[in-house]
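DM between two lab members

TW: hey, do you still have the ER transporter 6TM N-terminal domain-containing protein entry open?
JB: yeah, one sec
JB: this one, 1053 aa:
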Amino acid sequence: MTGAITNRSETGGDGSGRVNEHTISTDEPTGGNEIDNKEMQKESKVSKLWGKLGLDLGTVLMMMKAGIPPTIALAMYQADAVATTYSTLGYLVAIISILGFCIMPRAKFIQTMALNVMGTCIGAAVGMLMVWSGVQARLQTSSIGGPPQRYNSSQSAVCATWLFFQIWLVNSIKAKFPQLAFPAILYCIFVNVAATYGPEFQTTAQAEVFIQRLIESFLTGFALATGVSLFILPLTCRKVVTKEITGYVTALRGALQAHNKYFESLETTDMFDKVSPSESKDKKKKEELKSPEVVTLKKLMATITALHGKLHGDLPFAKREIAYGKLTPDDFESIFKHLREIMMPLMGLGSLMDLFERLAEIHQFDTDNQDAHGTEANSSRNKAVNDWNDIMKLTHEPFATIIEAMDGGLEHVLLRLQFVKPAKKQKAGTSDTEAKGDIIQPGDKGFAAYLETQADAFYQSKATTLRQWIESKGGKMDGTMFHEPNGSSPAELDLAPIKTRQRNHRQLYMVLYIFFLLHSISRAILDFVRFADEHDQAIAKNKFIHPGKRRFVKWVASVFRSQDSNENDETTSASLESNNTVVHLGDAFKTRKDPEHSPPENAWEKFGNLIRATSRFLRSPESAFGFRCACATMSIAITAFLHDTQQFFLEQRLVWAMIMVAISMTPTAGQSVFTFMLRIIGTIVAMVVALLIWYIPAENTAGSIVLVWVFVSLGFYIPLKRIDLVIVGLISVVTATLIVGYELEVRKIGEALATSNGQPYYKIYILGPYRLATVVGGLAVAFFWTFFPYPITEHSALRQKLGGALYLSANFYSIMHETVMARIRGDEGNLADPTSPGYKLAKVQNKVLAKQMLTLQGLRTHSTMVGWEFPLGGKFPKKEYDAIIQYVANITNYTALLGYASSSFTHPSLNQENDPSSAQWFHDFQKIVTSANITSHEITSLLALLSSSITNGQPLPPYLVAPQSYQISRRLEEVDREILSLAHVAEPGYAALAVIQISTRCINMDLAKLLKAVKGLVGELDFSFHIVSTQVDSETTSTDTLVSTPSHRNKQD
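TW: and the structure you got?
JB:
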């Protein structure tokens, strides 16, 4: 067979509605069915495996590119001039070229390489000072005229002191600034080598020659990585961001289609049917029981969230690049803003499943409790399901039409910006022009006007749908109901029972919620389409693009500031564990007002504060991590500074164990058993591969070099596809290159010169196990110092990050509160003016939201890994932590939706003079809603309190309760009963109010659950008194404090 044959449904194997080229013919004879089925199953498994690997042409080319620098280093070492220059450090050039990480996109690579060179040069200067001071100590303590001694205790002590101090300082900086991870690792490698060989030098000239050869080896490795990165298959950050934008838009299109299928499923299915936690503990079974539309939709929304966070991190680098192209840095920023404007309402629409679950919870539609409530609950549930089936049937056509138009709008954007190639045109004579007619296709000139027409038609269809909904409830309407300024609700609906009115009210708000968000998405896509038309790449001209002075200054300044980082960022991945994300929460999170010191008032007091700042740094978590690294390094290095073990250290090459400590220790989370085992397995695999590289070509030099390229290329699959496991990949590749490179070095320069540094020569089958033992020993030492003297466990790291997420939620809600109130008061100002309150609020709001999304993504990843933690004591309450993470995510989503909906209060359409009734209603609504508390500072206070409690592990204060839901609609009706009349239901502000009402209700529901969950974790201070009966084995707890009111106090006295 010529192609992959798979079993297919009606839509084809890729789920796109197209049947693949190779299909099974039903006319084949049955005799070969068994053979065909076996071949089909085999090829199906191969295709699935290939799909899981994710090996496309771009990935394979990048893997091949990664193997080139060490291959060049080993190949050029075979030249006599090169071998003479680098002598016994030849293999180090290959290793440094690997750590140069040439597969980074250009802007990231240039930033990292500049820092690498700077760090290495500083390391060389300090290293020279270190070995020079060691030589001076030797000269001062050696007897004049006596025979030279190989070991000198003073020289060793000086080098050891320098080594400890540098490792502590550099790793403290690495913990503070994750973007300096690679420079810090390379600095540590340099200082480790210099410090352990330093006690061998007897003269300053020897030290100078060694440091010079060492820095030449490092810079040569950097030069090889730089040349390969910039000239062989160059990859720019602009190209990376362009691919991410394309994937983002494609995911948005997929989410729209998934919503359409979900809406269609609601026409016939029970939307309240869900899997309760007690029904199944098996996650796979739960997924099977869920609706396929729901599963697909949730996966796509998670993909969009992840892409948004990745794009947010990569965009600054794309804007800093010097390039020759069409899209400017401001264009990329505008594209990202348009994507965010589409994502916000789409995320709200994706919460529809959550809203139905909440409705089921409010009405007690849970399947577990139906028997307890009897037939009344069943009939109520059936009535609600039938009502929603009817509603979704009414909205089928407008929803499907606008979703199709929006999908075309996103396709139009991709075509106009040339992110995808247009479909191949049919040959002349094959297309039916008459059948096409006047239909405007994506990519055509008038598509923006077409999309605007569709968006307006959808907005107008809302009144028709609402009219049909009111009539289905028994209400009688005339043709002018939605247009009268003082209209009132149909009397039939007002006279209905209270429960019926409440149910109708919730249905109405849910329908308005969907209409509002779909219309908002359509307007956001329309703005994106207009932007794409204005920046049509087909007519744009290429130009020289540079970041500009202001952006360049910000770039340089950002290098030395605390930054957000995650495992998907190549510049910071070397300092992160496999499950870690670092988010800088701002100075307010860490800054504490000192209750023991007033603010300084004079120069002396300010100087005293500087002295105290030194103490704060020394007791900081960053300093503690640096101290751990220094202790771990010295645990191995001490053998190099003692008389009896110095020779053993050099002969067994224990410096590589120290280097493994520098590479593998990470500042932000404990090394889990999982990653520790992966690193050991990777090292064992590297040793076996090194033996294969050497013996497969029969110890031929050229053959071994080619196989090194093959293995390094294969090894870089891990950093490319699993950047979170980059340390595992680097250790494996470095170990194999180290073993083979040393053998090639000895073959080139001879055994005599190779052993002149005190290291005996071993055959590769002996050297391999020695290297393996050295690397594993280094990893084991790093693992030990992670847990000693006290462990930095995954559990404590997860708790700290969760406290940070709660803090960001409080910050985000506070910003949103001010934004909503500013919009209601009308003093938001011009959003295009950088000095206006609205502009400043929007800027910080987007910044905090991006941080929160990054934090939540890291928390979910982190939570999946805590099971690998070595268990000591009771079980970790993973279920409770996962629930809290979900509550925080819900609160963040609904807070963002709350702010998005409030933007309708400043929309120009609400102040149109051509519709006086609409304008008058909104002015009345604005006056009333100003006095109502749509948002509350109580929520901010509660979230901040929960954050502090989780972060510090402190119990909550007693009798703490969540803020009550404000019931905005009820408050408005108390002031003006007709303000929320159904006659005004078609007003834009009415739909926005429905979204705000739903969002605030959901926030309050999740806050109550969040408070209960946090209280279960950290406990609650208990000041109540207990009366224990001696006759009954029970305990009665008072709900009041011992002394609660003056009258109680008198009685107690």
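TW: got it. Residues 794-1018 form a domain with the Methane Monooxygenase Hydroxylase; Chain G, domain 1 fold (CATH 1.20.58). DSSP finds 40 helices and six strands in the chain.
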